[in-house]
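FAQ
Q: What does a multi-component entry look like?
A: The components come first, one per line:
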Amino acid sequence: MPSATLLGQALISGVLAGGMYGLLALGLSLSWGLLRLVNLSHFALAFLAAYLTYELGTTYHVAPWWSVLLIVPSMFVIGLAQHWIFVRFKVNELGSLLITFSFAVMLEVGIQLYWTADYRRFETHYATWSLKAGPFYIPVLELILCLVAGVLAWGTWLWLRKTYVGKALRASAEDADIAAAYGVDHRKLAYLLSGVGAAYAGVAGTFIALIATLAPAQIWAWLGVVFAVVIIGRLGNPLGALAAGMLIGASESIAMAILSPAWAPVVSFSVLIAILLWDPEWS
Amino acid sequence: MTVGRTLPKAAAALGILAFAILPTAGLPAFYDSFFYLVFFWVSLSTSWALLSGFAGYFSLGHAAFFGVGMYTTATLTTKAGVPFLATVPVAAAMAALLGVGIGAVVFRMKRLRGELFALLTLAVTFVIATIILNTPIDGGAGVFMSAVPVPNLMPTQTGTIYMLGFAMCVLTLGIAWWVAHSRLGLGLFAIHDDEDVAEAKGVPTFRYKLIAFALSAGIAGAVGGIHAMYVGFLTVAGTFELTVPLYVVLMSVLGGARSWFGPAIGATVITALLYAFISGGEAMVGRAVVGLILVLAILWLPDGVVPAIQAWLKRRRPVEERAQAAVVPVVPATPHRIGTRNILEAKGAAKRFGGLQALAGVDLDVREGEILGLVGPNGSGKTTLINVISGFYPLSGGTITVDGVEIGHLPAHEIARRGVARTYQIPRPFVNMTVLDNVSMAATFGGSTRTTAEIRDEALHWIGFTGLGGKEEALPSELNLHERKFLELARALAAKPKLLLLDEVLSGLNPTEVDNAIRLVRAIRAQGATIVFVEHLMRAVVELSDRVAVLNEGKLFALGEPREVMRDPRVVSIYLGKAYAA
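Then the predicted structure of the entire assembly, as tokens:
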């Protein structure tokens, strides 16, 4: 059994790593929960954003906090374009899963053709900064990531709860026809939401570039775990997605500390299976 | 007609023969390998479609069954020295066992359909992969199969693996053909469209889903066992790759997952394409092209290539003139005689939903041959009563017997087999089946065992009886509300019910249609069925019923001759409020 300090450190790292799961889950959860579209290409968009951040940073020496201003609106537009296809062809849930899988494959191929299959690392002098709190180290970048994820999740939650647009979106998710009869322009709102979801992929991508090593096949690495997070956090619930992300991150990290790193995947998926079978009130 | 039937059979036999002697033709090993891969993907995607395409339980976990098969063969051959061929059936059995194990838990939960089932199976794949990786089964180093002897079925080793793959492919397609043309397949197609209705029409849905899952997983396991020998070196990352379930889905969906040979077509096309790009050194571009094809196929041919071609052929073929005389429902002039025996007896029947008491102890007898009208204000428990009699919900308390047999806790399909049929207030036809198939399906599962020809005649009779003659080949979406309601009736009648439960068949119909429907209900009774019908339309209730039962707040409130009951001030008051009751 590892020491208390080690476990504490594992917990902190896990929660912070879970922030990334939560951030990736956010966009997925919105489109799945509120538009009934399962968007596998979300991961590919995030990696496209990561590679763009890397390219702008290494070739043109643009700092990530500037490049994000370019990347996020671009992703928003891509989200709109993708949604146009779904609307134009009346794609259902299953169709969206297959189509976005194909988009993801095509994006993966595109990334590999341009940036090759080699591992890429965006080196910055602040990547290794960390705060020291008692015996524990807190990596600064991941802390910022968690704060950003928290602000986005909270903001999205408020947006859905408190504003007309949010309420209209939730009404449309329940019953699009009835909502339309009460004057909700579902189509415009769906475009907006798709754009916002893709923009979140852009934000996640910027952090991926700073924190992780990039390779085209990595697109698929987080797919399973993030889907687990989306379901555990309840579809369409932004705060739930973030909380579930941190829960899964922490449990993986603790499993790694106690058992071995190779056992980590069992944790998230066992939690997912347990929650699907058990169906607790809060999930 | 005979040429049309024997020609495809002869072609299939010739094709099988040609492929069977191919390894002896002395072609370069490249061909063995290429065709093996085609067979591999055909078997795998067809096996996926048995559960996911036919029954609509969309799985992303096919790699789990395939991988369990691979590692079963690898472990048995390398660690226990079992001969390779003997391990393949074991691989199939292990995978089937896993499938049945998952199904036995998951199929009991109605929530776990659609995308949740897909993700659950995906999660199972990751868990199994991690377990295999971290235990001596693999241990992270991978398993070499090179020392395992390959039986000498063919002159060359690649030829032997080719033959095994080919045999597996023929077997898989044979099973798929059989399932698609059997009672099992009909039940699975019905489950795909509407599982609750399928169950109510007499399909043992739980058992059928388990059988489909076992077949699907078992075939994948056997394919995996053979494939272990083909690849020669197994790694967890390579075996449980995400591309396996996704390619399987792509191939099936592209070809048409509801058709028994659709997946085979999709698999052949995609494998050939991928192979062409790989041998041209453009493997990555190949993946992108496959992705693009899939997008285009789903956007323009959402049901797949094979169904699209079938639909096109059907449109081109001249419509068969059916010499079907219209069946006129006959209502005998003499008054109907009602038996003294009770066909249905409810004693203290109760149903709770959480804190809501939908039925609070209903006592009701229905006599053989009578028409009982069931009325009451909204929320009084009428539809709930229909739902517990037909087995959609189990009873919370009390008993309900049909012909003296307690049915309160039987699954719906067993109640249907005992001669109880129902209709739905909002019609729930099987949307992907024609009118004829909808009705034949009910005749197959509801009534006694009959030949296909008898079932067809029976179905055509009831279609004519309900005035849907000429619409046999139409899909439910092409019918109007009135016709869909009558399709509900035809489906219920085809099961030859002793007890027919009608849930608001008249609502939404215009006055002429209501008159027709009333005549129809009388004619049905004249053929010997007992009818319980829920209705708000008082004219029909009074005209049709022998007795009327009034429900209020989950209890039997009044029972008796229609005109008397409807004049009862207490009944008027629950409908219209106290002020009108005087």
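Q: Is there any commentary attached?
A: Sometimes. For this entry: Chain B touches chain A through 40 residues (CB under 8 Å).
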